[in-house]
Amino acid sequence: MKKKFAAGLTGAIIAGALAVSQLAPVVYAEDGETSLSVSETEAPETEAKEEETEKKVHAQLETTNTDEAQVTAIDVSGVVDSVMPSVVMVTEKGVQEVMDLFGRSEQYETQGAASGFIIAQNDDELLIATNNHVVENSTEVTVEFSVDAEDEEDLLASAKVKGTDPKTDLAVIAVDLNDVKEDVLKQLKIAVLGSSDNLKVGQSAITIGNTLGEGISVTSGIVSALDCEITVEDGSVFHEFQTDGAANQGQSGGMIVNAKGEVIGIFNAGYLSGDNVGYGIPISTAIPVLQDLINRETRDALDEHGYMGITVVAVSSEASEFYNIPEGAYIYEVTKDSAGDKAGLQKGDIITGFDGITIDSKETLLRQITYYAPGEKVDVTVMRQGSGGYEEQTVEVTLEEAPEGLKKSASEKPAEDSGDGLQPIPDPFGGFFGGNGDGDF
After folding, report:
1. Catalytic residue among 165, 169, 438, 440
2. Known catalytic residue: 169?
3. pLDDT in tens, 110-124
């Protein structure tokens, strides 16, 4: 449409030029490109001049000749060689819960492949960045390093989830240094984190990840758009930059580097309805979150974790937008004299943080509380409705032991829910929330 508009405008100018006896002579810019400008001439005095003017009006566009174009292939092998010792492949196993047609809960074991890269090392651990959605439902995480080893088994190590942030889709997993062979450890590198503050469309963007779970592969492309608003399947919205490299499953958590080998982004989404469209979390957005996550205590999931004595309903992004309330875990009920009641939690509060971790759903809260033992004190952030709208408050909860019926961990629950005596919870956001042990904390 713009081209058609421009052509119509040019025609109107030329027509106007004919009407007032103006012409547009050819002017050559210093850079060799051709441009047009309009200048005025005096009115014709004789018939001869009139004919001469008419000839001048029919000027032809002229262009300059350019040298024959030369195409140079871009070799990024040096960049890839320098960053490869930082890259890891991530394999995770988890449990997914689904509801059948009769409202019964069934659990299935899942397995996925993704990517990550080493961002730090402390006295005890290698710390690896990846995506939250890679590990959010995981029960077992394994990494494979991208260096040389005589025995490929030496490249494998188990990892623990150190911290997650659903709001930015970031996570840090930790590998115990004692689980890494010495000859492998000597080859590993910590990735060099760059800046995404001054990204430009057209600059190099090299994506390295575990494509389709088949091993590390490299895509060389460019930054094709900035500040894109991305909405994923669960309704979460992220602001990221776009690359034109091939986007495939398994690349999530992989690094996007510039021509210097500096990380400028973390790949986390591909546009599956199109070709060669991928998105990355800008590294300048990620660094403050990763800095917090790497300094958190590495915890093991507990079979008998702490309990707050509350029942929650998830606030989806759709409900949040429709009702203009914060996303999180909506407290539907607080058990009298429970840990939550003693701390001051109230029905209607929306939990948005647990010990500094963003809570965006019931599932996120469940995952976080499984790492905390009875007796631990935890800061819980809630949004509480007041006269001026929702206000943020933080309360300290001393976790207690769970009732006998809720002590089973998710991994110990039967594949098919036989019913635990809980009734469906009326959902304040329409419909019903299927009540089971997962709703009680």
Report:
1. 169
2. yes
3. 778 899 999 999 999
- Residue 50 shares a structural domain with residue 146: no
Whether pLDDT at 13 is above 50? no
Q: Is 80 exposed, middle or buried (0-12, 13-18, 19+ CB in 10 A)?
A: middle
Q: Which of 86, 105, 115, 133 is catalytic?
A: 133
Q: Please give the pLDDT value at position 72.
A: 53
Q: Which pLDDT score, from 0 to 100, does residue 267 have? A: 92
Domain final position from 263, 278, 298? 298
Q: Is there a single domain that holds both residue 107 and residue 37?
A: no
Is 72 part of a structural domain of the chain? no
Total of domains in the chain? 3
- By CB atoms closer than 10 A (0-12, 13-18, 19+), residue 32 is exposed
Outline where DSSP puts E strands in 235-336.
Answer: 237-243, 255-257, 263-270, 278-282, 306-307, 310-315, 328-334
CA dihedral for 326, 329, 333, 338, sign (positive or negative)? negative
Q: Is the pLDDT of residue 104 over 80?
A: no
- Verify that 207 and 251 share a domain, yes or no: yes
- What's 311's domain CATH number? 2.30.42.10
* Total residue length of the chain: 441
152: containing domain:
80-298
* Tokens coding 149: 């080893």
DSSP for 171-231, written as a single string: EEEEEEGGGS-HHHHTT--PPPB---TT--TTSEEEEEEEGGGS-EEEEEEEEEEEEEEEE
Q: What is the mean pLDDT of the chain?
A: 77
| 318 in the same domain as 291 | no
Is residue 69 domain-resident? no
- Residue 114 is encoded by which pair of tokens? 């993704």
34-43, 256-265, 300-309: which range is least confident on average? 34-43
Q: In the listed set 249, 277, 298, which residue is the last one of a domain according to the structure?
A: 298
Instruction: Return the C-alpha torsion angle 316, 111, 297, 255, nearest 10.
Output: -90
Is the Cβ–Cβ distance between 17 and 36 less than 8 Å?
no
Tell me what pLDDT residue 422 has: 34
Is position 9 within any domain? yes
pLDDT at residue 268 is higher than 60: yes
Query: Tokens 């389709």 identify what position?
Result: 212
285-341 confidence digits (pLDDT tens): 999 999 999 999 998 888 889 999 999 987 777 777 777 888 889 999 999 999 999
What b-and-e string marks burial along 321-330, b requiring 16 or more CB atoms within 10 Å of the CB?
eeeebbbbbb
